[in-house]
Structures are given as structure tokens and as C-alpha cells.
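Deliverable D4.2, example record:
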Amino acid sequence: MRRAAVAIAAGAMAVSLAACGSAEEAGGGNDSTASAAKGDDIKVGLLLPENQTARYEKFDRPLIEEKIKELTNGKATIDYNNAKQDANLQAQQVDTMITNKVDVLILDAVDAKAIKNSVQKAVDQGIKVVAYDRLAEGPISAYTSFDNVSVGKTQGEALLTALGAKAKDGQIVMMNGSVTDPNAAQFKEGAHSALDGKVKIGKEYDTKEWKPENANANMEAAISALGKDKIVGVYSANDGMAGGIITALKAAGIDVPVTGQDAELAAVQRIVAGEQYMSVYKPYAPEATAAAEMAVALAQGKSLDSIAKDKVDSGSAKGVPSVLVPVTSLTKDNINDTVIKDGVYTAAEICTGKYKAACDKAGVTG
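Output generated by the structure prediction step:
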């Protein structure tokens, strides 16, 4: 991979947040005596939740796998699977990982609550579980993600900036993520903290499975209910949904600012073209690096003290050793300083065909 993002300083991963609970309560994640010390010849299971969002296969998987190989001198074995947004399938995949006797499991849950029993089964077989990106229920040993409340607040504040005086004149539509994803609730919390009292929320939806087609249908319903002249902006929790929302808006002849998250290539192109106002850029390299470092340490029976500087509580575990990564609001003005600078995309990848003139106007280079 040519991604310079892999080299982001590890210091960026340690955000100073309020601690809660103690490491000892977190399912033994910080217990250096958890298992007999192992060398580099370990087996790591990696389970990602879906493949509709571009990030998982394009960034998360290769970054995690590359870091694990680096940390183990190429000796680790990595078992990978993707649940394709199917919680039952993911439970079966955990069973397979148990059967394959992985030493540690990196798990990005489709449904954070439904996976609890599977996490317990893995732990009962001596397999430590690192919750990745979503805070899975059960006796997890470690967790890494972004500051998700901050993500929602960043989106909400950006939308208010885009609206300016119009925030007082019309209504917005809120398109939140899936109720099965605990991150979605945190995004929503952060967004409401920025938006409530400053703009009228005409319609609000929790979007099933984060699917763009469901967001599109919800947006069409909102337009019918509110009237196209009343909508001044749309809060979209991620870029995939933003694409479906913008399709519905275009069909109705509506041009209003729309938020997003994940800095997907299609979204960056929409931002350059003025179709989407912003996205939240989440540098995947620090998150992936943290997951790999914690997984290898746990598999080798080592402490997480030097890696995980934060602690979080889930619905079923206290003081889980965690790495929480900060985020950035991505707009037309800072594309060069974010996704291009970090090697996520090149200008050539962004500025294809119909986007070239808009890129030239926005000064997108590199």
C-alpha cells in the first residue's frame, strides 16, 4: 500500500478523556498473566461487520493485517471474515474462530448487544476479544474507536455553519444510523448537543442497517411530509446514507447542505462538486494500529498499559482499556491537508472526469 497514513504517529491515538472504572473490571484485558506468554507465532481472528461501507475492505482490513504482520515479524496467522451486515452470520463466524483456536479476536460487531453471548463463548475458551470501532457487549478485554459523541457534535456544528442565518428560517431532517450500532446513538447524542435549540428538526429517522436505499426512502418521506421549500439542511450520520439522501434531494429539486462521515471517495468527490457539504475524516491508521497492537499484546500475554491510555464502560463491562482517536471536519477547504496529506487518496483518484474542473477551482492537488 502507498498509504502514508500508516505512519501516523502513535501519539495521535491517545486522546485524554475522563477515566471511568478500573482495568481489572474489564474482563482481564490488562492482565499480563492472562495466558502463557507466546512469541510471534500467534493466530488472530478478524471479524468486520459489513462491506457496503467502503472503509472496511479498503482501509481497516489491510491496515490491521499489515500492522499485525509487522508486530510479529510476519509470523502471525490472520483468519478473516466479513458478516455482510448479518448478526446471525457473525455469531457463526465467532464460532468458527473458536473452532479454529485463534489466540485473540478483533471484533467489529454488527449488533453490539446481540454479539454478547458470542463474546462470552470466546472468552470461556481462553480467547481475548478486542472490540473494534463499535463497543461490543460482553467481557471484552480492549476497545478502540473514535470519540463518537465528538463525531456527531462535529457534524452538527458544521451543519449550523453551513446554514448560517437559514437555521432560523426552516427545518432540517436528521438521518441517524442503525439502532443496532451503539456508535449511532453516540453520533446522535453529539449531533443533538450541537443542533437542539438552534434549528428546528422537522423529521428524524433511525436508518435500518445504515443502508443508503433506506436513507433515500426516508428522505423521500420527509420531503413529502415537510414540503421541499421547508427543508434547509440534512444531518446524515455517514457518507453512504448521504449519497442516498442527495439522490432524493436532487430528484425533488432541493439543494441544501448535507453532512456525512467516513470520508469515502464518492463523498469527497461530492464535497468538491458542492453536492455534499462535509464529511468527518477519521484517520483509520491510528485505530487499526491500536487494534493490532492490543490484539498482539493480549495474544502474547502482555500488559496493555503502554498502549491503552483511556478507559470506557460498556453495558456489561467496566473500565475497558481503550484507545480513542480524534476526528476532523472535512470540507472543500481542507481536502489537501487531510485525506491527500495522509495518503488516503491522491488528487488523481478524486479529480476524475466531471470532478476535474471543480478540483481545479478548489485547489485540490497532490
